[in-house]
Amino acid sequence: MYPQNFTIRNKKEWDAYIDKSLIHEVFHTWNYHSLNQEGEPLLFVYEEEGFFIALPVIKRKIENSLFFDMTSAYGYCGPIASIDLSSLSVQTIASFKTSFMNFMKEENAVCIFSRLHPFVNQYNILESIGGLQENGTTLYMDLSLSIEDQRSKYDKRLFRQIRKLREKGYIIKELNSQEGIKNFTEMYYKNMDRVNASPNYYFDEQYFANLLNVERFENKLLLIYDGPELICGALLLLSNSIIRNHLSATSPEYLKESPSKLLTDEISMIGRRLGKKIFHLGGGVGGKEDSLFTFKRYFSDLQVKDYIWCYINDNTAYNDLVLKAGVDVNAGSNYFPLYRQPKRNTQAYISNIETMTA
């Protein structure tokens, strides 16, 4: 009977496997993938006696062709399993590779892009399938430290600024009301307008509402008010051991006050209170050590390498698609897949999570 592989296209079976995995987050669930409007959610499952490996993807139609490609939902995805992926034998890795290549062929998929999860040992199983590309580093806080020890590691000026922000008497609330979601969405849209973000990042009110009501996850909307006025907020994603600021926004009128510093400090306190081990801060835009990366490093200098996975299963079809798209393959672009590269480059800035390249 074993090994075997199959593809899941329904919520019940999908989440049954996710629940049995060693490590998982909202990013891996059916609900999260079903929010993506780019294509069809699929869960590829490889199984041997005693364990399984599951890979959630979005199957996208490639315009003006008979082909598809695969991508991960926005966030940190890649394969998860019921055992530690670093413990897999050479034979299992080879068998998984063959099964995965057959899956891609059966789905008529040319290639796959995935942003990998920095706290899951995915590299061992994927380095033989197209290889991995480093995408800078991401930062995190160790929540096993006391809040006092953590704050002692803050940049000295940052700690003074947070203390002054707390002295202003801002009101911090955890809300899941329709009004709170509506107000946060409006503020978030103003942020996206200000930074000239791509349309892909204009998540609507229903998107935020759905994320706050994902089954088995107690995600939170954390909002900061100056009296009745909303000045800053974030949608927090929580797993068994990790808390993260998924999307956040600051009122344009309060940018100079920088209440996001108070917000970040408060998230670390919530994570400790809930028994989380890691507050994943993320990194810079596109893996770069930019101003966003510098801001996060003021809170913690703990870093972990960030990887993306770019694999071409059908080189002939891929090259033909690149030629038809009129992309200059000698321009040195790192965009993947190349045939989806926008005709005009747009710099999209997302406040607390990195811009994906596909």
Describe the structure.
This protein has 358 residues and is α+β, with helices and mostly antiparallel strands. The protein is built from 11 helices and 13 strands. Strands 1, 2, 3, 4, 5, 6, 7, 8, 9, 10, 11, 12 and 13 form a 13-stranded mixed beta sheet that branches. Strand 2 (40-48) and strand 3 (51-61) form a beta hairpin. The chain is globular and about 60 Å long.
Derived structural class: alpha+beta
Order of helices and strands: EHHEEEEHEHEHHEHHEEEHEHEH
Proportion of beta-strand residues: 25-35%
Largest pleated sheet: 13 strands, mixed
- Just name the CATH architecture of the largest domain: 3-Layer(aba) Sandwich
- Radius of gyration, in Å, reads 21 Å
Helix content estimate: 25-40%
Calculate the mean pLDDT score and round it: 91
Count of separate DSSP helical elements: 11
Uncertain parts: 344-358
Strand count: 13
Between the first and last Cα atoms, what is the distance in angstroms? 37 Å
Assign the CATH topology of the largest domain.
Aminopeptidase
Q: How many structural domains in the coordinates? A: 2
Level-1 CATH class name of the largest domain: Alpha Beta
The coarse overall form would be globular
